[in-house]
Amino acid sequence: MLIEQPPLAALLARADAAIVDLDGTMVDTLGDFAEALNRMLHDLGLPAIAAAQIETMVGKGSEHLLRLVLNHVLGHTEQAQTAIEIKAKVEALYPRAWERYQHHYLAINGQFARVYPGVREGLDTLRRAGLTLACLTNKPTAFALPLLRAKGLDGFFGHVFGGDAFACKKPDPLPLLKTCAALGTLPARTLMIGDSSNDAQAARAAGCPVVLVTYGYNHGQPVRAVDADGFIDTLHDLLPAAAAGPRSRVSAGG
Question: pTM of the full predicted structure?
Fold first, then answer.
């Protein structure tokens, strides 16, 4: 009697590699964002922003995050100004804000962040199952590499690509396609693991299967409403799926 594999087990059985997002998927970096951003705002003489507000802005890269934060803060302090005037002020402040943000983020990188439960076990499960791993994040590479080292996760990955590694960031499919090329795997056999619609949209456009964690950020929206192939509550949930069935390997060269 043929027993159908669980969907997640079937995805893993068809995968040769996995691309794993960083912020909101492996590491809860909201504390780092809040600390660095509020130090930056203090340097600019602007009021602080709450971590809960920052959480809805994370996911499309540091440059995008910084502009959203400045627009939010100036929108509350410059209420008599029009949206166009506020946008112009954001752009005028941006170079100084970016310099101060980089300074503070590099100084505290990882100190206010934590690895989500089950991440190390999940990565180890993927590696033991024979998958090659890459980390792909919209975070600048200069932030991503030290964070992975600080949290003891760097050894799991043969490749780490930040948001500045390619011409576009997720949700554009280009970073996934370039990462698949670096891994030497076909997109259809390269599993994307992330926490947001950015990851899912990029994966769909690139032709990669995608699984999303149910924690993380996802711009403050319910993650289960996103078009994905599966959802997991922890990366450790990959363990029973990896043990559920054998894998067959197909290289990018055929």
Answer: 0.89
